[in-house]
Specification:
single chain, 519 residues, Ferric Hydroxamate Uptake Protein, Chain A, domain 1, 3 domains, binds 2-acetamido-2-deoxy-beta-D-glucopyranose, ECM_Assembly_Org, LCCL, disulfide bond, glycoprotein
Length: 519
């Protein structure tokens, strides 16, 4: 429960409300309060109480606010008026209000941030409601930049820190200064509010030296974004490189490696090379080579240092647009993986346990969530059974439990039909930005033909792996597997050797992922 002070005229902000009486947490608190009749459009203090997520939120028209319907949301709130019985309670409520600093027309999710300063006339939630990113700035400390512009750079960083609202439930921000070598000025975990970050920025002293951006990118990849330094894991890694002119070393390779490990790289080039200067540049088109896609999203050219201020809002908007931070996708968090498990009689109860262990051991290596890797499973004999669908278990613990609970079926072996079933029940529900991976595990020759079903799923873009044990047929394993067979098809004589293929499968999935062009 907490208290929120609603400013006047929230209605005019048109911030959305979902539900009636009980509102989805993404709703505007104050508009929900108006909808509920707790306050009018002239504002006032209200009590907000958190509630569990609902399966349905019904939209209605009430007190001039039209709320919308929403199916299923993870969290809700209700709003009520403040009725204080005595002055002590008033004092407590007032203190609570001060410590929360919440003044909002905006979403109830903003409440998760306890460190929001109030900026008159500025609505901090507008741009970065969901801006949970681990954000590092690589600032240019080279001599070429000069004292005055270095100060402009610091002012720019301070403005970004202000605009983005640093906080443990939102963005965390750190700074590296590069010259000949990079140094950490502010680690990701040091400050949990914008004010402290700004104070620390003010104290940064120019190092001088060259402008070795490539070296700095290697540094963030190998050291800066480590867990020990405050990388939270659940938040995309973003690095914004500020460059005066152009780098004095090559950036392509270092940048690619950083991107492959999941770091989104933005380049803000200030006073970049003009036509007369291009021949001085160490690596032509260095920005295009360093960023993930050449569609302009990850690069922001700024014509002069004095125009840099104008880049604050556009940059904040982009780094907070987590849906577009596609470069943070790695081989471990970008997949829909379907296990197609042979439950025929020849396997036997004990070996079936070993197969499930294998499935669990492979699963354990991935980052599991609805927006990361999802796992589904089908067991088959003559028939097929959906054990669980993609997204049915959205965290690792639940998923591993569900795998453990799969019951051995026992029966015949129709691998072809099982592949078709997996395509219909699982891959047809794949999200477009996920990589579809099928892992078929079988211990014998199929009673039906596997060729046509395998070809059909390959054509749908599924990358198929086959794992054969004991009596599995080599030719079938190869039909099932995506080419080249030797990287997608494995055979072991006995179930007890299955464990050896866990690292191999992960390695191959990642190698294949990293070999895909990213532009
Ligand atoms: C799974 O992992 C456990 C723990 O590392 C190991 O003991 C077991 O042999 C593995 N089994 C398989 C089939 O991979």
């Amino acid at each position: 429960e907490f208290i929120v002070k609603c400013p006047a005229h929230c209605k005019e902000t048109k911030q959305q409300v979902y539900g009636t009486g009980v509102f989805a947490s993404i709703s505007s608190i104050c508009n929900a309060a108006i909808h509920s009749g707790v306050i009018t459009n002239s504002g006032g203090k209200v009590i907000v109480r958190k509630m569990a997520g609902q399966n349905i939120y019904k939209g209605t028209n009430s007190n001039g606010v039209r709320s919308l319907s929403l199916p299923k949301w993870r969290e809700s709130f209700v709003v009520s008026g403040i009725k204080l019985r005595n002055t002590v309670q008033t004092a407590i409520a007032f203190k609570l209000f001060l410590s929360l600093h919440l003044v909002l027309c905006f979403s109830g999710e903003a409440k998760e941030r306890s460190d929001l300063p109030i900026y008159p006339g500025l609505h901090p939630f507008k741009t970065n409601l969901h801006c949970k990113v681990d954000l590092a700035f690589l600032m240019d400390g080279s001599w070429s930049i000069g004292k005055r512009r270095f100060k402009i750079q610091k002012d720019f960083l301070a403005e970004v820190a202000h605009a983005i609202n640093v906080g443990v439930a939102g963005p965390m921000m750190g700074i590296i200064q590069y010259g000949d070598d990079p140094v950490t000025e502010i680690s990701l975990k040091t400050y949990s509010n914008s004010r402290d970050v700004k104070t620390a920025i003010d104290k940064i002293v120019q190092k001088g030296g060259l402008s070795n951006v490539g070296r700095a990118l290697s540094y963030i990849n190998k050291q800066y974004f480590s867990d020990a330094n405050g990388n939270r894991g659940g938040a995309p890694n973003v690095a914004v490189v500020l460059v005066d002119g152009w780098p004095t070393d090559k950036v392509e390779e270092a940048s690619r490696l950083a991107r492959e490990s999941g770091i989104n790289i933005f380049f803000v080039t200030i006073e970049g090379p003009d036509d007369n200067e291009k021949h001085n540049v160490v690596e032509a088109n260095f920005v295009d080579k360093a960023v993930c896609r050449t569609n302009g999203f990850f690069s922001l050219p700024v014509s002069s240092w004095f125009a840099l201020r104008k880049a604050v809002q556009p940059l904040v908007k982009r780094v907070c647009d987590t849906d577009r931070l596609v470069c943070s996708k790695t081989c471990l968090n970008a997949n829909d993986i379907a296990f197609v498990i042979d439950g025929s009689s020849s396997v036997g109860t004990g070996n079936f346990r070993t197969v499930l262990q294998f499935v669990a051991n492979v699963t354990r290596e991935f980052e599991i969530s609805d927006t990361d890797t999802r796992v589904g499973a089908v067991q088959y004999t003559y028939e097929q059974r959906l054990e669980f669908a993609f997204g049915q278990h959205n965290n690792k613990a639940d998923l591993l439990n569900a795998i453990k609970r799969i019951n051995y079926w026992s029966g015949g072996t129709s691998t072809g039909a099982a592949i078709t079933y997996a395509a219909e029940q699982l891959f047809s529900k794949s999200k477009p930005n996920k990589r579809k991976i099928m892992i078929v595990i079988t211990d014998g020759r199929s009673y039906d033909d596997v060729r046509a079903p395998a070809l059909a799923v390959h054509r749908q873009g599924v990358i198929a792996y086959s794992i054969g044990i004991a009596w599995a047929a080599q030719d079938e394993l190869e039909y099932i597997a995506t080419d080249p067979d030797k990287e997608h098809s494995f055979f072991v004589d006995e179930f007890d050797s299955l464990y050896k293929f866990v690292p191999k499968i992960i390695h191959n999935i990642c190698q294949e992922f990293n070999s895909q062009p990213r532009n």
